[in-house]
């Protein structure tokens, strides 16, 4: 149990376009989903936390108008990178919590590698 | 505030034992996680400690001392596939994960 999927696994887009990344909990209801970004050779940086049916809470320095997060159901959250630029190229990872003997344990998706040309 | 420190990089030999340390400072504590992350992949769960002591799981063990703000991950009988980054993550009073920068472990034959 506790499987999280992400789609797509990688995407290449032109500068100025928008990209949507989906995160799904396949076999449990995720009360909370998290979006991380990871640049090469750096640790995970939390971008935002979202609870089903409510607005996401963004970390300091993360532009909410640029990184749109929708957590419409207990199994799906989406991250849309709007007007992407080369500096947005990164590895985006989602995680979900809501299933575990460990309180609030996060289960990670496989990640999405975004390259903006 | 919160702070997590772990070594940037370590090197060990195949078949040997290595200990990766993690020290932290926090006002609220709800457990400490260790994750393994191979390059280009998402982190995978290794261990969780919330009480003091040693948790053993196969070749991997994790230790916690809450008083000292200290944890370590012990890897035995190292294999080449253990080459990866090992991330120490603290769960704070709000149940949010605070991540260390990760320790890159290089295994040599």
Write the layout of secondary structure elements.
The complex is a heterodimer of chains A (117) and B (109).
Chain A: E1 4-7, E2 10-13, E3 19-25, E4 32-38, E5 45-51, E6 57-58, E7 67-73, E8 76-81, E9 90-97, E10 107-108, E11 112-116
Parallel strand pairs in A: 2-11
Antiparallel strand pairs in A: 1-3, 3-8, 4-5, 4-9, 5-6, 7-8, 9-10, 9-11
Chain B: E1 3-5, E2 9-13, E3 18-25, E4 32-37, E5 44-49, E6 53-57, E7 60-65, E8 70-75, E9 84-91, E10 97-99, E11 103-108
Parallel strand pairs in B: 2-11
Antiparallel strand pairs in B: 1-3, 3-8, 4-5, 4-9, 6-7, 7-8, 9-10, 9-11
Shape of chain B: globular
Q: Structural class of the helix and strand makeup of chain A?
A: mainly beta
Terminal-residue CA separation of chain B: 41 Å
Identify the quaternary structure here. Answer: heterodimer
Name the helix and strand elements of chain A from N-terminus to C-terminus, one letter apiece.
EEEEEEEEEEE
The overall pLDDT average of chain B reads 94
Biggest sheet descriptor of chain A = 7 strands, mixed
Largest sheet of chain B: 6 strands, mixed
What are the low-pLDDT stretches of chain A, counting only 5+ consecutive residues below 50? none
What's the order of the H and E elements of chain B? EEEEEEEEEEE
Assign the structural class of chain B, choosing from mainly alpha, mainly beta, alpha/beta, alpha+beta, or little secondary structure: mainly beta
Write down the overall geometry of chain A.
Answer: globular
- What is the residue-mean pLDDT of chain A, rounded to a whole number? 91
Tell me about this structure.
The complex is a heterodimer of chains A (117) and B (109). Chain A has strands spanning 4-7, 10-13, 19-25, 32-38, 45-51, 57-58, 67-73, 76-81, 90-97, 107-108, 112-116. With 117 residues, chain A is an all-beta fold. In chain A, the strands form 2 sheets. In chain A, strands 2, 4, 5, 6, 9, 10 and 11 form a 7-stranded mixed sheet that branches. Chain A has a 4-stranded antiparallel sheet with strand order 1-3-8-7, with no helix packed on it. In chain A, strand 7 and strand 8 (76-81) form a beta hairpin. Chain A starts with a strand and ends with a strand. Chain B is mostly beta strands and 109 residues long. Chain B has strands at residues 3-5, 9-13, 18-25, 32-37, 44-49, 53-57, 60-65, 70-75, 84-91, 97-99, 103-108. In chain B, strands 2, 4, 5, 9, 10 and 11 form a 6-stranded mixed sheet that branches. A 5-stranded antiparallel sheet of chain B has the order 1-3-8-7-6, with no helix packed on it. In chain B, strand 6 and strand 7 (60-65) form a beta hairpin.
